[in-house]
Here is the input.
Amino acid sequence: MATAKIVYASLTGNTQEIAEILADNLRDLDVEVDVSECSEANAAEFYNYDICIVATYTYGYGDLPDEIVPFYEDLEGLDLSGKIAGVVGSGDLSYDEMYCKSVDDFVEQFENANATIGAESVKIEFNAEGEDYDNLEAFAQSLVDKLP
Here is the structure.
């Protein structure tokens, strides 16, 4: 059975909800899922999983949330070759080009760690609704489809 680790940062609960929706989608695809809040996770845990996922919000004008910065920095030293990775997150469209910038920052960090990006990132304004559910389901399916 394939395994996935989802690490999230959530201030208002929106991103936690997104992580939980995604976890349910992966479980529906017969993936064993472990979900952790970022302050309770270590980036090296990704070595123990087939699929590595970060769910984060963007704080202010394009900033990583303070609580996920140590996790982000820990990713720098990892070699995740052979791992499938993906990033989802929430943000506020009023920030224009900085909308969900933390999602893009984590995609870049995964690429630097040699992970295979298995799905196009899902960016959600505030909380999941409407087509966001379909996008998260498609994201999960894409990640699973990339498994060897």
The chain has a mean pLDDT of 97. Residues 18 and 128 are 7 Å apart (CA to CA). The beta strands are 3-8, 32-37, 51-57, 84-91, 116-117, 122-125.
